[in-house]
Structures are given as structure tokens and as C-alpha cells.
């Protein structure tokens, strides 16, 4: 995707060169970004008193130094609402103008209603329909893809795509293999149509492999293993993971899908000005960038401060890059995620 001439506050994402030949093209543009994190910060040192681990192990194996963890009153929908308000404010759009709200999350406030509906209520977005996408750490990219298709169909409409997680609520705080990795956060983008040929989402590419489900999953809480005292006692409502295997598949699939996106647009990795990968592990991000031959100065990383915030990680990073001026007019930006 390409950032616009009007500066970092108004992102211009990508150019579909094939469509461009035809003259005026309607694409989905990001008009505003926003993010929100809980106030409380837990450092690696703090974790040393919870499980047998060390700041040194966590920092060198993952790149994480601290993460934000929700306290009473902070939920997936409240963080999502805060991030959404910031995106709306940047875009100069009122909640009543919204047509659609889609939230990527694996840690909804509750099973029903969906988190999007709660965000709709909080914002007072009376006209919008709302729903969630359940695609783990890829949730935001899925939400963005769905919103992009919706806006392409109706360019005058306005949509919010959000990634929001309270992973702390589904983390086993006795499992050092997982509890050192995750954090809570939300990120949002406000989307609408643009006929500016140099602006808009270029393309989106999604793949799944359900055969790998046992590498990263939550055993309890669904219809196979409904909530029970036994489930709670075993903390089976929490994330289970085979870290090594996830690592290998993550590097391979993120590099593959990035290549797919780049070549589908007749571009080269060298054309990418800013690569924003899902912030799961600094070693995964470096390995993917190396495979793609994208130099480290073009890779956006904030995992050190937030940990892995699942579907929130990309929109939080995008918002930071946008607000800090890291995104320059005309930049081509590549977003890339993988997850359970
Ligand atoms: N502190 C200290 N030691 C730890 C530890 C912790 N928090 N967690 C695991 N260890 C230990 C292991 O028990 C193991 O000890 P052993 O050699 O005595 O058995 C050792 O460290 C190495 O464990 P290993 O799992 O091989 O480490 P790793 O280099 O693969 O790193 C991950 C572990 C989880 C950081 C890494 O595999 C990873 O990031 N995977 C991807 C996970 C991910 O991205 N998940 C989310 C997807 S969206």
C-alpha cells in the first residue's frame, strides 16, 4: 500500500496498476487510524515473580520487554471503542455516518452479542451494522479484507475495521511457554472509497490451513468442551501452543503470502517502503524480512513495548507509524499476518 501526498494523517494505501490503466478507479482508502492500550504495564522483570523465566530469556527469544495488561473496566470492546474514536477523529467522520463495523478478535467481551455490536452501542453509530471476525492473530487482516470488499461495492459508505484483544483473559498465567508472549490492545482504521488513482488498498490475499489446528488452539469453551468447573480448574479456556512448530510455519507462510501480494501487483520487495508484520516474535519478523529481502530499516517493530497483541498488533503498529510520521507520502506499505 502507498501513503499519500496529503501526509501521514491521511494514508494512501496501494495502487492496483491493472485497474489504473482504465482511468478513474474506486479503491478503499484509509482515512484515519487509531489505537488504544490499557494503562497497566507488566515488564519481563514483573513476570519473573509469576513464572520461572527471566528478562534475558524473554528479550532474546522474543524481542518483548513489556506489555500492557487490562485492569477492571477495560475490555475488548472498550479498547476497540477508544481506538475507533481516534480513527474517526483523525478522519473527521462522525459515528452516525458509519455504515459497517467489523472487529477481528479472539477474546470477545462475551460470546453474544458480538464485540462490534458493543462498539456500535458505545460510539452511538446507530446506522451501522456490526459483526466480529474470528481469525486469531490474522483477524485484523481478515476484517480489513471484508471491509475493503464492502467499500469497493459501495464507495460512498464508511466502515471501521478493528483488531482488539484482551489476550490476558485467555492466557494461562502458570504456563511460561505462553504467558510471557501476549498483551492487550486495540487498533482501528476508518475506510471509505476514493477515486484518486494513487490511493487505496491494492489487493488482499488470504490463506488458511485447518490441518495445523493443533499447533495453536484453545481447547475449552466451545461445543466440544463446554465451560465447566473442570475446564476452569485445568485452565483449558486458555491458549495452548507448540511454539517451535508455529514459528516455522509462521515464517514460511508469511513470506509466501507477502510474495503473492507483491507479485499480484507487479511489484518487487524493493518497492515496499514499510513492511508491517504481525508482531509475534522479533525473530519471526526478521526471518520473514530476510526471506523477502526487505532491509531492517523498512520493517516496523514495536513488539518490545506491547508483546503479541494478536489481531490488534498490525493496526496498532500502523497507527504508530502514521502518527509518528514514519509513513511518508507515496510510501508503499505491506501488512502481513498469521495466526491460530
Ligand atoms: N522462560 C524461560 N525458559 C523458557 C520459557 C520462558 N518463558 N519458555 C520456554 N522456556 C524453555 C523451554 O522449556 C525450553 O527448555 P528446555 O530446553 O530445557 O526444554 C527452552 O526454553 C527452549 O524452548 P523452545 O520452545 O525451544 O524455545 P524457542 O526458541 O522456540 O522459543 C517461543 C519459544 C515460544 C518464543 C518461540 O518458539 C516462538 O515465538 N514461537 C512462535 C509463537 C507465536 O508466535 N505464537 C503466536 C502466533 S500468532
The CATH C-level class name of one domain: Alpha Beta
The assigned CATH architecture of one domain is 3-Layer(aba) Sandwich
CATH topology of one domain: Peroxisomal Thiolase, Chain A, domain 1
| Count of helical stretches | 12
Residues in helix, %: 25-40%
What Rg do the Cα atoms give? 19 Å
Uncertain stretches of 5 or more adjacent residues = 5-22
CATH homology-level superfamily of one domain? Thiolase/Chalcone synthase
Largest sheet: 5 strands, mixed
**Strand percentage:** 15-25%
Please tally the β strands and state the result.
11
Ligands, deduplicated: coenzyme A
What are the secondary-structure elements, in order, as H or E? Answer: HEEHHEHEHEHEHEEHEHEHHHE
Provide structural commentary.
The protein has a domain at 26-194: Peroxisomal Thiolase, Chain A, domain 1, CATH 3.40.47. Helices cover 34% and strands 17% of the residues. The protein contains 12 helices and 11 strands. α4 (76-91) crosses α5 and α9 packs parallel to α10. The two termini are 25 Å apart. Mean pLDDT is 93; it is low at 5-22. The chain binds coenzyme A.
Please describe the structure with a list of short key phrases separated by commas or semicolons.
340 residues; alpha/beta; Peroxisomal Thiolase, Chain A, domain 1; 5-stranded mixed beta sheet; two-stranded antiparallel ribbon; 12 helices; 34% helix; globular; binds coenzyme A
Blueprint of the fold:
Blueprint: H1 17-20, E1 27-36, E2 41-43, H2 44-48, H3 55-62, E3 66-68, H4 76-91, E4 100-104, H5 115-123, E5 129-133, H6 139-153, E6 158-166, H7 176-179, E7 184-194, E8 216-217, H8 229-233, E9 240-241, H9 243-264, E10 274-277, H10 282-292, H11 303-306, H12 313-323, E11 333-336
Parallel strand pairs: 4-5, 4-6, 10-11
Antiparallel strand pairs: 1-7, 2-3, 6-7, 8-9
Helix pairs in contact: 4-5, 9-10
The site of coenzyme A has 20 residues, from α3, α7 and α9.
Amino acid at each position: 500500500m502507498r501513503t499519500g501526498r496529503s501526509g501521514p494523517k491521511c494514508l494512501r494505501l496501494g495502487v492496483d496498476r491493472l485497474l489504473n490503466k482504465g482511468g478513474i478507479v474506486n479503491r478503499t482508502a484509509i482515512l484515519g487510524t487509531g489505537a488504544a492500550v490499557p494503562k497497566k504495564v507488566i515488564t519481563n522483570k514483573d513476570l519473573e515473580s509469576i513464572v520461572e523465566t527471566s528478562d534475558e530469556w524473554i528479550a532474546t527469544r522474543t524481542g518483548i520487554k513489556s506489555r500492557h495488561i487490562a485492569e477492571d473496566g477495560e475490555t475488548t470492546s472498550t479498547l476497540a471503542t477508544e481506538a475507533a474514536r481516534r480513527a474517526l477523529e483523525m478522519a473527521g467522520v462522525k459515528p452516525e455516518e458509519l455504515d459497517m463495523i467489523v472487529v477481528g478478535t479472539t477474546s470477545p467481551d462475551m460470546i453474544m452479542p458480538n464485540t462490534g455490536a458493543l462498539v456500535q452501542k458505545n460510539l452511538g453509530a446507530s446506522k451501522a451494522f456490526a459483526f466480529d471476525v474470528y481469525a486469531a492473530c490474522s483477524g485484523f487482516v481478515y476484517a480489513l479484507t471484508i471491509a475493503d470488499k464492502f467499500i469497493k461495492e459501495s464507495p460512498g459508505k464508511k466502515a471501521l475495521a478493528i483488531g482488539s484483544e484482551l489476550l490476558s483473559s485467555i492466557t494461562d498465567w502458570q504456563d511460561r511457554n505462553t504467558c510471557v508472549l501476549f498483551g492487550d490492545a486495540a487498533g482501528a482504521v476508518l475506510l471509505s472509497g476514493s477515486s484518486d488513482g494513487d490511493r487505496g488498498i491494492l489487493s488482499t490475499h488470504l490463506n488458511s490451513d485447518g490441518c495445523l489446528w493443533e499447533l495453536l488452539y484453545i481447547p475449552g469453551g466451545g461445543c466440544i468442551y463446554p465451560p465447566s468447573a473442570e475446564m476452569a480448574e485445568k485452565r483449558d479456556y486458555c491458549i495452548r501452543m507448540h511454539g517451535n512448530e508455529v514459528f516455522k510455519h509462521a515464517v514460511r507462510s508469511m513470506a509466501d503470502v507477502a510474495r503473492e501480494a507483491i507479485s499480484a501487483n507487479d511489484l518487487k520487495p524493493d518497492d515496499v517502503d514499510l513492511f508491517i508484520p504481525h508482531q509475534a516474535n522479533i525473530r519471526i519478523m526478521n526471518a520473514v524480512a530476510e526471506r523477502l529481502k526487505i532491509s531492517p530499516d523498512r520493517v516496523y517493530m514495536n513488539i518490545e513495548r506491547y508483546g503479541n497483541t494478536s489481531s490488534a498488533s498490525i493496526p496498532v503498529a500502523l497507527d504508530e507509524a502514521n502518527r509518528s510520521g514514519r509513513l511518508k507520502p507515496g510510501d508503499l506499505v505491506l501488512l502481513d499476518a498469521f495466526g491460530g
